[in-house]
């Protein structure tokens, strides 16, 4: 019986140590923004999906549905859903979405970072939401991808989101 108590105590200790090893939201945000910057600085991923007038890369396991018009799409990854907005009238150096985010007095931005290279502007941001949730925003030019996260895997999500956004290409409909 004494051994059982020792094993239970050790198991409880291991669980507490492992639970304490998880990254905080702020640490995940910092890591995610850094990973997004690396993706932004890299060549775009090769397109593997076409819908409407866009071509893009979707990570394995992601699905895509057309939204209310040809500018809005829903990406699905398990229980997570993402809103993809594509404005073909915005240039690659457009700062429109960034300006809107910065000028919104109701946005409580936890962390954000802008990226610029070769006449392309982009940014990543984590915006605090009610009930300990976070809106993740990734943008390049006129392409924006957002999701709501419960504070889990923020770093991985930001990296994947930038990979998707950076890959979006609008197909000329007149051809």
Tell me the β content: 25-35%
Largest sheet, in brief, is: 7 strands, antiparallel
| Model regions low in confidence, pLDDT < 50 over at least 5 residues | 13-20
Distance, first to last CA: 79 Å
User: Major sheet: order of its strands?
Assistant: 3-4-5-9-8-7-6
- Helix amount: 25-40%
Mean pLDDT: 87
Computed CA radius of gyration, to the nearest angstrom: 19 Å
- How many helices in DSSP terms? 4
Which structural class is indicated by helix and strand composition? alpha+beta
How many strand units? 10
Shape: globular
Quaternary organisation: single chain
Order of helices and strands: HHEEEEEHEEEEHE
From the structure above, extract its key features.
175 residues, alpha+beta, 7-stranded antiparallel sheet, 3-stranded antiparallel sheet, 10 strands, 34% strand
Structure description:
By secondary structure, the chain is α+β, with helices and mostly antiparallel strands. The chain contains 4 helices and 10 strands. The protein has a 7-stranded antiparallel beta sheet with strand order 3-4-5-9-8-7-6, with helices on one face. Strands 1-2-10 form a 3-stranded antiparallel beta sheet. A hairpin with a 3-residue loop joins β7 and β8. The chain is globular.
């Amino acid at each position: 019986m004494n051994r059982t108590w020792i094993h239970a105590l050790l198991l409880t200790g291991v669980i507490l140590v492992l639970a304490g090893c998880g990254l905080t939201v702020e640490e995940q945000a910092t890591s995610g923004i850094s990973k997004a910057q690396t993706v932004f600085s890299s060549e775009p991923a090769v397109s593997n999906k076409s819908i409407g007038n866009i071509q893009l890369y979707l990570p394995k396991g992601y699905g895509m549905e057309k939204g209310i018009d040809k500018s809005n799409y829903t990406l699905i990854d398990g229980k997570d859903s993402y809103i993809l907005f594509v404005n073909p009238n915005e240039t690659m150096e457009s700062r429109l979405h960034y300006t809107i985010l910065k000028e919104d007095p109701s946005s409580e931005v936890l962390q954000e970072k802008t990226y610029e290279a070769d006449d392309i502007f982009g940014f990543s941001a984590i915006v605090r939401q009610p009930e300990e949730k976070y809106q993740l925003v990734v943008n390049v030019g006129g392409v924006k991808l957002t999701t709501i996260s419960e504070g889990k895997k923020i770093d991985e999500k930001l990296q994947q989101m930038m990979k998707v956004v950076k890959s979006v290409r609008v197909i000329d409909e007149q051809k």
